[in-house]
Amino acid sequence: MFLIYLLGIVLFFSFVANFAFRKIFKSLSWVDKPDGVKKLHKNDIPLSGGVSFIASLIFAVLIFDFFAGVNFNLSWNGFFMSDSNKENNSIHLSPENKIDLIGNDSFDIQIVNINENSQAVVVMNKKTFQTELMKIYKDESGSFQIKGDGYEANSNYFQETFLPPKVTVNINGNKSTYYQKINVDVPPFFIWMLITGIFLAFVTLFDDLFGLSVSTRFLSQAIACLVLITQSGLYIDDLGNLIGLGSIELNPAFGVLFTIFCVIGIINAFNWIDGFNGGLTSQFLVGITAPLILLSVNDSLFIEQIYLFLVICFLPYALMNLKVMGKRFVIFMGDHGSMFCGYIVSWSLIFFAMERADYMNPITAVWIVGFVLFNAISTIIIRLVNKRSPLVSDRSHIHHALDRLGLKGLRVSFVVLIISSMLAFTGVFLEIIGVSELVSMLILIFVSIVFLRYRFNLENS
Hints:
461 residues; 8-stranded antiparallel beta sheet; 3-stranded mixed beta sheet; 55% helix; globular
């Protein structure tokens, strides 16, 4: 129940952030203007979606840290991490008997585990700055009994509906009330992913507003990836058993370069799909919710909560972008928002495929982002066939082809959502039923050939 309460607070803040930044961006004329060629909307649309999404995520991290006791490890891990370091950075839930307390008045209490049944308590009187080491025991009723030299203390434990469990401590007649934290260790990867993603979004926001060269955009993407790799030690070092002869392992140098290449490709593929209302929305939600199925099957509660906060922070933008809140409140992500979303999805999939291989094979990750990749690859091929630069913007994306067929507005979004969902959940289904990676890859190649064939027929028609 308390998690739902936190999600509600984050959702409310996210709505406020989206409306507030929309107004700010519109007043500053930071908008997407229609051009009658590619941009067919009638009015100027604020490009505030990306900033709002990032602000909501930062707020979610802060409030989750305050109430849930998240332990962030931002230490430098070096370029390569030993197995012991990776184990230390894995997700760890603290024992049930450990409590950390929010709020204080005359006494500051820090609790450290002694063994399975007892804990040490360091109590500091804030007036005299005297400290005392005592023992705390949890009885059958859930109360904590505390004793030590010079201190007599007792406590009561209360479970409330919309707040964390409350602990009332009475120390020598001085009564204090605290709230219990959950105490969760977050792998450095997730925090560095957010930090480097914000850096990338900040650079591309300048591109949205003032324009940057293609080389500058690519360089910022590569720098963000390299920093995340060096800080977390995570990169693609195993392609899985794709040919049925064992795992295909990559040496570190090639693995790092291959990882940067893949992430940059997915980032720009997400940016390319953000050419119509609901395009980016559908692909981001598919990229986030598809792994949730695998996580629920494998009973990984904490990672599910991280993904749940991502969806909650993104939801207000989705509703506004799809005009659910009314046409006057429509907003766009902008390049900074779409690239940030692509960055988050690509690195999350890499994390699960590499660090949680028992959840997801690498080929399943390709299935999940299959539609944005198919759109990007087919668009590049069409531009090359027509002797145009693959980096020059035009109307050769699949949503443009659907528009020329007569599908307008949200009908295009619906068709794209159905196709991308079928691709993603086919890969997830093959993973769940235990189909080999070789068979999954062959099916994916067949589907991609069918998709590309239909795509070229659609373009020619």
